[in-house]
Each structure stands twice: as structure tokens, then as C-alpha cells.
Specification:
Order of helices and strands: EHEHEHEHEHEHHE
Distance between the termini: 52 Å
Number of domains: 1
Strand order of the largest sheet: 3-2-1-4-5-6-7
Largest sheet: 7 strands, parallel
CATH superfamily: NAD(P)-binding Rossmann-like Domain
CATH topology: Rossmann fold
Bound molecules: NADP nicotinamide-adenine-dinucleotide phosphate
Number of strands: 7
Oligomer: single chain
Strand content: 5-15%
Shape: globular
Number of helices: 7
CATH class: Alpha Beta
Length: about 260
Amino acid sequence: MSNSRKVALITGGARGIGLGIATALAGDGCDLIVNGMRSADDVADVLTALRALSARVVYAQGDVSDAAARARMLELAHDEFGRLDVLVNNAGITSVGRKDLLEADEASWDRVFDVNLKGPFFLTQQVAAWMIAQREADSGFAGTIINISSISAQIVSTNRGDYCLTKAAIGMATKLWAARLADHGVAVYEIQPGVIESDMTVGVKEKYDRLFAEGLALERRWGKPQDVGRAAAMLVRGDLPYATGQTLEIAGGMMIRQM
Ligand code: NAP
């Protein structure tokens, strides 16, 4: 098993950062299960482009916050590939309505926590059990789990409190799973993207164009999905050994303060 092509499940892998990751992994010789909310017809062009990179790609439509949908993703992985080497918990949503803390409502809280935290946690639980079984069957098996959190795990946005809280909690989930799976040959990492060009940030483009020009990050540009994709591919290749549980900031140096 250790010499064959790796198989990666990427949630929210058909656009934005997830597509950047899917493209990088396909380019590195991984086969893919791409998950997303849209119909297979709606993402057909994206899947065709990924297949052009010589990857076998199957699409698993479904909501990561829904247990039945998560089970279907793994059934598909079993049926199509019979193995799973990589899980990238990327799917996520921002705070619904981006309301100030004093106006924030429980409906947004519940949805954001379900998608950004509950879904990845329980998907990881199921994948972990399968990875442990794969390791028991083949001592050469090495699993990789990557959680896409955000610099919002560290930076406060008072109009997205629920989002920030889920991203901070993903940091602890990463450490928990790293500790639980280290003896089973599975490494778990967190990537904290900075401000990345995607549909999620299209509505705040002018604001961040200005902030980047003013020096928001040491590298004065928007992050790109490919920047995060290359970081994930490095982890999947095993090019950051002896580092399970680590957090990578892919944020152009945004977290470095100057005076
Ligand atoms: P995006 O362009 O809005 O894409 C989100 C992706 O997640 C889409 O593929 C979407 O599926 C999928 N998705 C949303 N809800 C889902 C659900 N309930 N079940 C399954 N899939 C779901 O966002 P993005 O900017 O690429 O963000 C990806 C991740 O990076 C998120 O976790 C986000 O919090 C994080 N992040 C983003 C930034 C940034 O600046 N953009 C910065 C830091 C962290 P469809 O394609 O089917 O709609």
C-alpha cells in the first residue's frame, strides 16, 4: 500500500482554498474525493480540470455537518479506492450576516459551529478509525490529517465572534487528534491561512486591498488558494517530518507586530 498513489478527501474542495489544495495534491500524484455542497453538475468543469492532472477524482456532494453525508463520503472512498491516506478538513463558512457581538444570534452560532467544528471533528473521528485499521494492516501506512483553521483563531473580529471561536477550537482539535493518533502513524496539522482571495472574501475585497497596501501583512498582497495548496502538499508529501500537531501560518507574515 505504501508505494501506491495516495487518496485524499478534501471537504469543500471544488472552490477557493479547497480547490487550491485539491489542485496541488492532484499535481503531486494523489487521487481525490472532493466534497462540496453543490451538485455534481455544477462542479463538472472543476472535476474535469482536476482529472486533467492525471488524478482519479470522485465527487461527494453533502453537508459536512450532517452525519449521514459524512458517512456517504467515506462509503464512496471505500467503494472507489478502498483506502484513505489524507483528510483535509477545509469546508467552512463565515459568520452568517457578520453581526456585531451585541447583535449576534444563535442561528448563526449553531450553523457556524456545526459546519466549522462539529463536522470536521466527527469526520476526523471516522477517518481516524479507518486510518488506524489501515496502519494495522500495513505498517508502512502513514496518514495525514490537515485542519484548515484561520488567523481568526488568533485575531479578534467583533463582527464574526462565532467564526473566530470555531477556528480557535480547531486548534485544540488538532492537538487532541495529534495526541490520539501519533502512535498509529497519523500526523495531524493545522494550517492558518491569512486573508485569501476566494468567494468567502469577495465581499470585503476593497477593504483588504486598502489594508494590504497599508502593510497589513509583511508580504503586501492577498494570499492565494495556491499558497495554501502548496503548504498542504508539503505536509502530504511528508516534507515536514517530526512535527505532528504543528500550526502553519500561511499569512504573509501578518501575525508579526512591528513598532
Ligand atoms: P469559499 O470560497 O466560500 O469555499 C467554501 C467551500 O466550502 C466551498 O467549496 C463550499 O462548497 C464548501 N462548503 C461550505 N459549507 C459546506 C458544508 N456545510 N458542507 C460541505 N462543504 C461546504 O471559502 P474559502 O475561502 O475557500 O475557505 C475555505 C476554508 O478556509 C474555510 O474553512 C475558511 O474558514 C478558511 N479560511 C478562509 C480564509 C479566506 O481569507 N478566504 C482565511 C482563513 C481561513 P460549494 O463549493 O459546494 O459551495
